[in-house]
């Protein structure tokens, strides 16, 4: 079994994250009776009382004629973050919010993935790269996330 513990130190996470814009465009879809192709190709699914939310490649959604919302790009933070890490996504999402960029984050066992509007992807990437660069000095994090006592 692979070790999935990951990094927990906030400063280290921010300073060493490498935001990577993934190829393709994605959409969010809600389906009540998912086609097998949805299960096969979904990046993420989550069951809610209103139906199954799936994040799928836009071309798959078009082929399956899914009703979709939120055309987006995926930015992967290529640092192995712990699912118990405190404040990492708070720092990231706050930096994006300050730039006027909304984000739908998804955490998986090894990395965090940020879904941002298609037309904001390049700006988000720039904000995240700047955050990683400034996070290496440690002091700039204080304005984004107060230290935990």
Q: Which keywords apply here?
A:
globular, seven-stranded antiparallel sheet, VC0802-like, alpha+beta, 149 residues
Which strand-content bin applies to the residues?
25-35%
Name the CATH homologous superfamily.
VC0802-like
Q: Any guess at the CATH architecture?
A: 2-Layer Sandwich
Number of strands: 7
What is the number of helical segments per DSSP (H or I, 4+ residues)? 5
Helix content: 25-40%
Main sheet makeup = 7 strands, antiparallel
In the CATH scheme, the class would be Alpha Beta
Distance between the termini: 34 Å
Mean pLDDT: 85
Number of domains: 1
Structural class: alpha+beta
Using the alpha-carbon principal axes, give the shape.
globular
Characterise the protein shown here:
There is one protein chain. The chain is α+β, with helices and mostly antiparallel strands and 149 residues long. It has a single domain (10-143), classed as VC0802-like (2-Layer Sandwich). It has helices at 10-16, 36-41, 58-64, 88-98, 121-135, and strands spanning 19-21, 26-31, 44-48, 51-57, 68-77, 104-107, 112-117. Strands 1, 2, 3, 4, 5, 6 and 7 form a seven-stranded antiparallel sheet that branches. Helix 1 packs across helix 5 (121-135). The longest helix is centred in the C-terminal third of the chain and has 15 residues, at 121-135. The relative contact order is 0.22.
Which helices and strands occur, and which strands form pairs?
Layout: H1 10-16, E1 19-21, E2 26-31, H2 36-41, E3 44-48, E4 51-57, H3 58-64, E5 68-77, H4 88-98, E6 104-107, E7 112-117, H5 121-135
């Amino acid at each position: 079994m692979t070790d999935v513990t990951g990094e927990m130190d906030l400063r280290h996470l921010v300073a060493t994250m490498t935001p990577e814009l993934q190829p393709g465009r994605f959409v969010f879809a809600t389906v009540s009776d998912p086609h097998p192709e949805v299960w096969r190709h979904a990046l993420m699914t989550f069951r809610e009382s209103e139906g199954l939310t799936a994040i799928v490649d836009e071309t798959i959604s078009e082929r399956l004629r899914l009703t979709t919302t939120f055309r987006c790009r995926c930015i992967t933070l290529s640092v192995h973050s712990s699912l118990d890490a405190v404040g990492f996504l708070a720092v990231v999402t706050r930096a994006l919010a300050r730039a006027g960029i909304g984000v739908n984050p998804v955490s998986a066992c090894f990395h965090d993935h940020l879904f941002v509007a298609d037309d904001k992807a390049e700006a988000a990437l720039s904000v995240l790269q700047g955050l990683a660069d400034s996070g290496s000095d440690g002091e700039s994090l204080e304005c984004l996330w107060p230290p935990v006592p």
